[in-house]
């Protein structure tokens, strides 16, 4: 059974760095084809993809946010960590982690999601 | 970056109605298009991948079609449990990148 769970602070101040952890089970990020992504959703708004890390430790970022994001993994702990620097109130959102399992064809879809964690940016 | 649009932004239909949502990409994305359902307070759920493939366990009243820049998502017979917001999502695979549409909120009339 695949599960993912996000954890991190509920409240951060402007200019601070946000660190979120995705702890997962039911798969290994060392298995070929496995990827974990971060996606966020401001209240009442649409989803926005942030970053992806794959089984080979390759990392990919949203073009608009890449200067502020860092994604990493700890395979032994089954965790993926996202840091976002210089937080601003517009970054207030629910942050989700989600899995991609690439099969033989390079088809990318998010098949399992965490429940999300709401992060509010306010002084 | 590829931009995604969806229409309508919201709709209201009766139980049993056929519901259609369209999604348009700003450039040709082949069939690299997925559809998700999101109920209030919940994470999105994958329904359709690669434009027309039904995810395992998803009811057959959901379907998708299209390629290139124009895509369609259909609920053949709307059920009360289908009340949700539906998002299309395109992907690039070299390198990986993803863009979601703005969403379509579906209500019961």
Plain-language structure description:
The complex is a heterodimer of chains A (123) and B (109). With 123 residues, chain A is an all-beta fold. Helices cover 0% and strands 51% of the residues of chain A. Chain A has strands at residues 3-7, 11-12, 18-25, 34-41, 48-54, 59-61, 69-74, 79-84, 93-101, 110-113, 117-121. In chain A, the strands form two sheets. In chain A, strands 2, 4, 5, 6, 9, 10 and 11 form a seven-stranded mixed sheet that branches. Chain A has a four-stranded antiparallel sheet with strand order 1-3-8-7, with no helix packed on it. Chain A starts with a strand and ends with a strand. The mean pLDDT of chain A is 96. Chain B is mostly beta strands. Chain B has no helices and eleven strands. In chain B, strands 2, 4, 5, 6, 9, 10 and 11 form a seven-stranded mixed sheet that branches. Chain B has a four-stranded antiparallel sheet with strand order 1-3-8-7, with no helix packed on it. The chains are: A mainly beta (123), B mainly beta (109).
Low-confidence stretches of chain A: none
Give the biggest beta sheet of chain A: 7 strands, mixed
**Which geometry of chain B do the CA atoms define?**
globular
The biggest chain-chain interface is: A-B, 25 and 27 residues
Give the overall shape of chain A: globular
> Between the first and last Cα atoms of chain A, what is the distance in angstroms?
40 Å
Structural class of chain B: mainly beta
Rg of chain A, alpha carbons: 14 Å
Computed structural class of chain A: mainly beta
Spans of chain B of at least 5 consecutive residues whose pLDDT stays below 50 are none
Number of helices of chain A: 0
Order of helices and strands of chain B: EEEEEEEEEEE
Give the oligomer, counting copies of the same chain as homo and different chains as hetero: heterodimer
> Beta fraction of the residues of chain B?
over 45%
Beta-strand content bin of chain A: over 45%
Largest sheet of chain B: 7 strands, mixed
Average per-residue pLDDT of chain A, rounded, comes to: 96
Tally of DSSP β-strands of chain B: 11
Question: How much helical structure, as a percent, in the residues of chain A?
Answer: under 10%
Between the first and last Cα atoms of chain B, what is the distance in angstroms?
A: 37 Å
Instruction: Give the count of helical stretches of chain B.
Output: 0
């Amino acid at each position: 059974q695949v599960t993912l769970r996000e954890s991190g602070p509920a409240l951060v101040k402007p200019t601070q760095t946000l660190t979120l952890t995705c702890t997962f089970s039911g798969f290994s990020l060392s298995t070929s084809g496995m990827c974990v992504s971060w996606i966020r959703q401001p209240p009442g708004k649409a989803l926005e993809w942030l970053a992806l890390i794959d089984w080979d430790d390759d990392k990919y970022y949203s073009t608009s946010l890449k200067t502020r994001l860092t994604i990493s993994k700890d395979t032994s702990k089954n965790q993926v960590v996202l840091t976002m620097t210089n937080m601003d109130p517009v970054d207030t959102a629910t942050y989700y982690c989600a899995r991609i399992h690439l099969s033989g064809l390079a088809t990318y879809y998010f098949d399992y999601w965490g429940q999300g964690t709401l992060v509010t940016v306010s002084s | 970056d590829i931009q995604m649009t969806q229409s309508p932004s919201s709709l209201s239909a009766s139980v049993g109605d056929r519901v259609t949502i369209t999604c348009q990409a700003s450039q040709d994305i082949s069939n690299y298009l997925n559809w998700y359902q999101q109920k209030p307070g919940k994470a999105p759920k994958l329904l359709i991948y690669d434009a027309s493939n039904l995810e395992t366990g998803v009811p057959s009243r959901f379907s998708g079609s299209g390629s290139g820049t124009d895509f369609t998502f259909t609920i053949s017979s709307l059920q009360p449990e289908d009340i949700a917001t539906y998002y299309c999502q395109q992907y690039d695979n070299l390198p990986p990148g993803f863009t979601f549409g703005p969403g379509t909120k579906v209500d019961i009339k």
